Amino acid sequence: MKVLFLIAALIISGCTTALWAPEYKQEIIDGFYVKSDTGELFVTASDSAYLFEINKSFGEALTLSRKIEFYPSFNDFELKKDNTIVGNVSLTLISDEPSLELETHLLSLGFKKDKLLKRLKLTKKVEGKRFTVEGDLPLEKLEKSQRISIAQPSTFSQTAGKIVATPATIVIDSVVVVPAVFLGATIMAAGGG
């Protein structure tokens, strides 16, 4: 009888744990753009966009990834009910023997020597907002898209702000209107093109 009771308790606890577990959405990230003058990171996906506030050194490290090979990783991303998103972004230098000049520069940006990997690595927690995109953003895409798992609440509603992209302007939430050519040129210049 005790064995039957124990099995029933394990099954029930497994079911309730599954009820509390968040759902995960796979998002394909196809571009990122650093706007260093305002400290913003703009990340694009197929039909969504994410706007994160970042510091200058992290923006510079992201910009360097257009010239220097890093292995990116994205962990613990969670989309909350109010469409804010938080998670950790890591950049690990692929080269295990960087030049002294590069190593000094990366250390000044906050990279640290990872004891396990024996490579320079930078991990930053980012927080921002999710938007849905209508139209095509006139921005350069990544050569290779990245797949990210994002936890979201099971009662999540699609109430994200909107970004409307037209040939002349980009409108974010009907409040901020930016000329599309200006935004594209500024972000691509900041992102290394």
Detailed description of the structure:
With 193 residues, the chain is of the alpha+beta class. Helices cover 25% and strands 44% of the residues. It contains four helices and eleven strands; from the N terminus they run H-E-E-E-H-E-E-H-E-E-E-E-E-E-H. The chain has a seven-stranded mixed beta barrel. Strand 4 and strand 5 (84-93) form a beta hairpin. It starts with a helix and ends with a helix. Residues 15-19 and 180-193 have low confidence and may be disordered.
SSE topology:
Elements: H1 2-20, E1 23-35, E2 40-45, E3 48-53, H2 56-64, E4 70-79, E5 84-93, H3 100-108, E6 112-114, E7 119-134, E8 146-152, E9 161-165, E10 169-172, E11 176-179, H4 180-190
Parallel strand pairs: 4-8, 7-9
Antiparallel strand pairs: 1-2, 1-8, 2-3, 3-7, 4-5, 5-7, 6-7, 9-10, 10-11
DSSP strand count? 11
Question: Oligomeric status of the shown chains?
Answer: single chain
Low-confidence segments? 15-19, 180-193
Broad structural category: alpha+beta
Q: Tell me the Rg in angstroms.
A: 20 Å
Topology as a string of helices (H) and strands (E): HEEEHEEHEEEEEEH
Largest sheet: 7 strands, mixed, barrel
* Strand residue percentage: 35-45%
Q: Mean pLDDT score, rounded?
A: 76
Identify the overall geometry: globular
| Helix content class | 10-25%
